[in-house]
Amino acid sequence: MAGVEYDVYVTPPPSRVEWAAFVEAENKIIDRFLEGGYELLWQVELDVEVPPNSFRLLQSLDVDIACGYVRRHNGDGLILGFLDENMRVWYLPENSVRGGVLSGWVMAGTSCVLFKRRIFEDGLRFRYVRGVTPDIVFMFDAQSAGFKAKVHGDVLCGHLPECPLGYEGVVS
User: Fold this and answer.
1) Domain holding 52: CATH number?
2) Cα–Cα nearest to 72, from 169, 159, 170, 165
3) How many CB atoms lie within 10 A of CB 137?
4) Which range of residues forms the domain containing residue 142?
5) Tens-digit pLDDT profile for residues 69-120
6) CA-to-CA distance for 72 and 166, rounded, in angstroms?
7) For the chain, how many structural domains are there in total?
């Protein structure tokens, strides 16, 4: 990331289990980000490989939440789709976004996402809702609050270990 000032932060081990631990870790990252006075938070999960120039591509979208996307761990489809008013995700095939930009009420998980500071300044955080993954809840809450999100079709990330960067097949 030549020419970009940045810090790397890895959360300490969580005190909770499963999705509650995910929410706890996400919110620790946000608090640390806000304390640092940064304008952008680029989050890349530990099991994700990003393509070259991903940061610049996401930044070029100039929206509140700019997302890359990943294949599911089993290789069967993408974590990518549109949200409805009931927090359901309508998943999309790869050809619906590859090489383009997806906008509207989108959800692409939190595997590779660039957040603008303003999203968190009024207290928006990740939260746990039984039966819905926290990334879906967050994207729903953020877009309900009027924040704009887009998915960049050239930021298809690797999702380790089954689907490394550049993977095109089906996991057996």
Assistant:
1) 3.90.550.10
2) 159
3) 18
4) 18-159
5) 998 888 778 888 999 888 889 989 888 889 999 999 999 999 999 999 999 9
6) 14
7) 1
**74: in domain:** yes
Ranges assigned E (strand) in 29-171? 40-44, 48-49, 65-71, 78-79, 81-83, 89-91, 101-103, 106-107, 112-116, 149-159
Residue 11 lies in a domain: no
166 in any annotated domain: no
Phi, psi of 150 (to 5 degrees): -145, 155
Confidence at 42, pLDDT banded by 50, 70, 90: very high
> Is-contact 166 158, C-beta < 8 A?
yes
Residue 83 domain-assigned (yes or no): yes
- Interatomic CA distance for residues 7 and 32, integer angstroms: 11
- Residue 20: both structure tokens together: 């509650």
